[in-house]
Amino acid sequence: MSAEPTKLLLKRVFGKETEMRTLLGTMNEEIEKMKKAVNIDYAPVTLDKSDKKVGLSFL
């Protein structure tokens, strides 16, 4: 199935434009938000644990 029919189906089902996302991409976005909130909402160790789960290294 090509992307265009999929987008059309999602638009009809949900009634709005939608985008295809991957789990890894979503996790990376959330980790970027967490990095901005280290020592405010999150302890550095929390971010380190998330880094290891996703398999990225940025600390």
From TrEMBL:
Protein name: Uncharacterized protein
